[in-house]
Protein backbone atom coordinates (compact mmCIF):
# COMPACT_ATOMS: atom_id res chain seq x y z
CA UNK A 1 0.00 0.00 0.00
CA UNK A 2 1.38 3.42 -0.99
CA UNK A 3 1.23 5.93 1.84
CA UNK A 4 1.27 9.69 2.01
CA UNK A 5 4.49 11.41 3.04
CA UNK A 6 4.40 14.14 5.67
CA UNK A 7 3.27 17.18 3.68
CA UNK A 8 1.44 20.44 3.91
CA UNK A 9 0.34 20.72 0.28
CA UNK A 10 -3.35 20.09 -0.33
CA UNK A 11 -2.86 19.52 -4.05
CA UNK A 12 -0.14 16.84 -4.20
CA UNK A 13 0.29 13.18 -3.33
CA UNK A 14 3.37 11.13 -4.19
CA UNK A 15 2.29 7.86 -5.77
CA UNK A 16 4.92 5.16 -5.65
CA UNK A 17 4.71 2.69 -8.53
CA UNK A 18 2.11 4.71 -10.47
CA UNK A 19 2.40 6.83 -13.60
CA UNK A 20 0.26 9.51 -11.90
CA UNK A 21 -3.18 10.12 -10.46
CA UNK A 22 -4.75 9.06 -13.77
CA UNK A 23 -3.74 5.50 -12.97
CA UNK A 24 -6.30 5.59 -10.13
CA UNK A 25 -9.27 5.99 -12.50
CA UNK A 26 -11.86 3.35 -11.58
CA UNK A 27 -10.49 2.83 -8.05
CA UNK A 28 -12.94 2.84 -5.14
CA UNK A 29 -12.59 5.89 -2.87
CA UNK A 30 -13.09 5.40 0.87
CA UNK A 31 -13.42 8.23 3.37
CA UNK A 32 -12.72 7.58 7.06
CA UNK A 33 -16.43 6.83 7.55
CA UNK A 34 -17.09 4.60 4.54
CA UNK A 35 -17.24 4.29 0.78
CA UNK A 36 -17.48 7.55 -1.15
CA UNK A 37 -17.57 6.31 -4.76
CA UNK A 38 -15.23 5.62 -7.69
CA UNK A 39 -12.60 7.79 -9.35
CA UNK A 40 -14.22 8.99 -12.59
CA UNK A 41 -11.37 11.21 -13.80
CA UNK A 42 -8.38 13.10 -12.46
CA UNK A 43 -6.50 16.37 -12.76
CA UNK A 44 -2.78 15.70 -12.45
CA UNK A 45 -0.57 18.63 -13.33
CA UNK A 46 2.31 20.44 -11.69
CA UNK A 47 0.18 22.79 -9.60
CA UNK A 48 -2.94 20.74 -8.93
CA UNK A 49 -3.80 17.11 -8.34
CA UNK A 50 -7.35 15.99 -7.63
CA UNK A 51 -9.73 13.09 -8.05
CA UNK A 52 -13.22 13.65 -9.48
CA UNK A 53 -15.40 11.02 -7.80
CA UNK A 54 -18.65 9.52 -9.06
CA UNK A 55 -20.69 9.06 -5.87
CA UNK A 56 -23.91 7.96 -7.52
CA UNK A 57 -27.01 9.61 -6.03
CA UNK A 58 -25.34 10.35 -2.68
CA UNK A 59 -24.20 13.86 -3.75
CA UNK A 60 -27.37 14.45 -5.80
CA UNK A 61 -25.85 14.98 -9.22
CA UNK A 62 -22.72 16.69 -8.00
CA UNK A 63 -19.29 15.20 -8.72
CA UNK A 64 -17.02 16.00 -5.78
CA UNK A 65 -13.39 16.77 -6.48
CA UNK A 66 -11.01 15.44 -3.85
CA UNK A 67 -7.68 17.30 -3.57
CA UNK A 68 -4.77 14.85 -3.83
CA UNK A 69 -3.41 15.98 -0.45
CA UNK A 70 -6.41 14.31 1.24
CA UNK A 71 -5.23 10.88 0.08
CA UNK A 72 -4.06 8.79 3.04
CA UNK A 73 -2.96 5.84 0.94
CA UNK A 74 -3.57 3.62 -2.06
CA UNK A 75 -4.16 -0.13 -1.87
CA UNK A 76 -3.45 -1.55 -5.32
CA UNK A 77 -4.44 -5.08 -4.30
CA UNK A 78 -7.98 -3.83 -3.58
CA UNK A 79 -7.99 -0.93 -6.10
CA UNK A 80 -8.86 1.46 -3.28
CA UNK A 81 -7.91 5.04 -2.42
CA UNK A 82 -8.20 5.84 1.31
CA UNK A 83 -8.81 9.47 2.38
CA UNK A 84 -7.98 11.40 5.58
CA UNK A 85 -11.44 12.96 5.92
CA UNK A 86 -15.10 12.05 6.20
CA UNK A 87 -17.89 12.05 3.64
CA UNK A 88 -19.81 14.95 5.21
CA UNK A 89 -16.72 17.18 5.16
CA UNK A 90 -16.32 16.45 1.44
CA UNK A 91 -20.02 16.98 0.83
CA UNK A 92 -19.79 20.52 2.24
CA UNK A 93 -16.58 21.36 0.34
CA UNK A 94 -16.68 24.01 -2.39
CA UNK A 95 -18.08 22.74 -5.68
CA UNK A 96 -15.48 21.91 -8.31
CA UNK A 97 -15.36 24.32 -11.23
CA UNK A 98 -12.99 24.27 -14.17
CA UNK A 99 -15.16 26.19 -16.63
CA UNK A 100 -12.47 28.84 -16.95
CA UNK A 101 -9.04 29.62 -15.52
CA UNK A 102 -10.66 32.19 -13.20
CA UNK A 103 -13.29 29.71 -11.97
CA UNK A 104 -10.63 27.08 -11.30
CA UNK A 105 -8.43 29.59 -9.44
CA UNK A 106 -11.45 30.54 -7.30
CA UNK A 107 -12.16 26.88 -6.60
CA UNK A 108 -8.55 26.28 -5.50
CA UNK A 109 -8.61 29.30 -3.17
CA UNK A 110 -11.98 28.44 -1.56
CA UNK A 111 -11.05 24.77 -1.19
CA UNK A 112 -7.70 25.62 0.41
CA UNK A 113 -9.42 27.82 2.98
CA UNK A 114 -12.16 25.24 3.59
CA UNK A 115 -9.79 22.39 4.43
CA UNK A 116 -7.48 24.61 6.51
CA UNK A 117 -10.34 26.01 8.66
CA UNK A 118 -10.69 23.08 11.03
CA UNK A 119 -8.22 22.63 13.88
CA UNK A 120 -5.93 19.72 13.02
CA UNK A 121 -6.91 20.15 9.36
CA UNK A 122 -8.68 17.15 7.79
CA UNK A 123 -5.87 16.67 5.34
CA UNK A 124 -3.38 15.79 8.07
CA UNK A 125 -3.75 12.63 10.09
CA UNK A 126 -4.05 12.83 13.83
From TrEMBL:
InterPro entries: PRC_barrel-like_sf. This is PRC-barrel domain-containing protein. It comes from Streptacidiphilus jiangxiensis.
